[in-house]
Design goal:
The protein is of the alpha+beta class and 394 residues long. The protein has helices at residues 2-11, 16-21, 31-42, 60-71, 87-100, 108-124, 195-207, 247-250, 291-301, 345-349, 366-370, and strands spanning 78-84, 127-128, 135-140, 146-150, 153-161, 211-216, 226-238, 253-254, 257-265, 275-285, 304-310, 315-329, 332-340, 360-363, 374-386. Helices cover 28% and strands 30% of the residues. The strands form 3 sheets. It has a 6-stranded antiparallel sheet. A 5-stranded antiparallel sheet has the order 6-7-5-9-8. It is rod-shaped, with a radius of gyration of 33 Å. It binds zinc ion (2 copies). One zinc ion binds at residues 173, 175-176, 180-181, 183-184, 188.
Length: 394
């Protein structure tokens, strides 16, 4: 081995790290110490520069200091290190190994990530995780930069909406169709407020994240309020700097949108749960309606199944429970019912949203049974009950 080291040294100056790494069977605490010991045995003094790394191994401490500094902004339990090296560095190491038939040594890249990982672990008290780390640190030895990305945080929550005229979802920016442009302030969304926009802003601020993506359990119209235990949702907050939830800060009322409940979830659910909604709708009749007709309506829709047919000819059924009508006058009534989640409320009442050709047909529906046209200016969600809990919904 001494002979081999001598041969290498004759042509290639190497730093102690890069020398030690070529001799995996030589014993020593780490490659720098090994390299130093080998160099002493060979009897050469350390030369300036290193054929393989050209000084990179000397900069490891700077990188770990920089990394720890950047990590101060993050809440995390574990991390993973990655490194981008100039291709020539790897090629030079390969070249040297091929020439001297050096086998079994670790690559310079692995050594760098492991060594900095050790330093970062000891300075932060956090551990390395190769599978799903909270943060991934990428050190770029070409640009000198350290880049941190973090695993998304998932939250499960329920919201109440106590004001009318606020849509549930954000609408994509008309200009850029969601890609982000000057007009939408590079958000990809229209500037008008919505439940989604209010919740997204609150979650992004809370977790110091970049974006929030929602999965809703059902939907309501712009004029509906949502009461009772609230509508459940899942949100994925990407690039969060913080990972814990401070309920006292987040459960506040803002512009009529109240987070009733929220908690950090392990992961995104695979499928949505079944649920039952309690609805109250205000309807207007195009003709006079008496008590008898309304009684017949109640009889017809109490605990029944309705058939939903979409334009694509998909047919499925939904159940309606506890159907009640409260007559206000000849032309007005309040309807209360519970039904399976996902039933289109307006279509079930029998009004089309736009007057265009309906994309969906529900039979029987309220208008059909009464045999008259209806208007429904508003329906409210009084409660929402989750049926299957296998995904951790409540
Ligand atoms: Zn070196
Ligand atoms: Zn835009």
């Amino acid at each position: 081995m001494v002979e081999l080291a001598e041969l290498i040294f004759a042509d290639y100056p190497l730093c102690d790290w890069c020398l030690g790494r070529q001799f995996p069977s030589y014993r020593g605490k780490h490659d720098k110490i090994k390299g130093e010991m080998i160099r002493r045995e060979v009897g050469v003094v350390r030369k300036e520069g290193c054929f393989i790394c050209q000084g990179i191994m000397q900069s490891l401490n700077d990188f770990s200091v920089k990394t720890v500094e950047k990590l101060r902004d993050y809440e995390f339990d574990d991390f993973l290190m990655g490194a981008t090296l100039p291709r020539e560095v790897i090629e030079r190491e390969d070249e040297l190994r091929a020439k001297f038939k050096l086998r079994g040594g670790e690559s310079i890249k692995r050594e760098i990530t492991r060594e900095i990982g050790k330093a970062v672990a000891s300075k932060t008290g956090k551990k390395v995780n190769f599978r799903k780390p909270d943060v991934t640190i990428l050190m770029n030895f070409i640009s000198g930069e350290v880049n941190i990305t973090s695993k998304p945080v998932f939250v499960y929550g329920r919201y109440l909406k106590t004001v009318r005229g606020l849509s549930q979802k954000r609408r994509k920016c008309r200009e850029c169709r969601g890609r982000g442009c000057k007009i939408c302030g590079y958000t990809g969304f229209m500037k008008e407020e919505s439940v989604e926009q209010i919740l997204a802003q609150r979650l992004i601020e809370h977790f110091k994240g970049k974006r929030a993506k929602f999965t809703w359990i059902g939907g309501e119209s712009i004029e509906s309020v949502v009461l009772g235990s609230g509508r459940p949702f899942y949100a994925e907050i990407s690039e969060p700097k913080l990972r814990h939830l401070d309920e006292s800060r987040i459960l506040k009322d803002q512009k009529g949108v109240i987070l009733k409940e929220i908690r950090v979830a392990d992961k995104k659910p695979k499928d949505k749960p079944n649920f039952i909604v309690t609805v109250s709708a205000h309807v207007g009749f195009e003709e006079d309606v008496d008590e008898g007709k309304l009684y017949a309506l109640k009889k017809a829709l109490q605990n029944t199944e309705v058939e939903v047919r979409s334009l694509k000819k998909k047919v499925f059924t939904k159940k309606v429970y506890d159907f009640h009508v409260e007559r206000m006058d000849d032309r007005e009534a309040k309807i209360h019912f519970r039904c399976d989640g996902g039933l289109n409320i307006r279509r079930f009442i029998g009004v089309s949203n736009s007057g265009k050709r309906d994309t969906m047909e529900i039979t029987p529906n309220v208008s059909e049974i009464l045999g008259i046209d209806l208007v429904c200016d508003v329906f409210d969600i009084l409660d929402l009950e989750i049926l299957n809990d296998k995904n951790g919904f409540r």
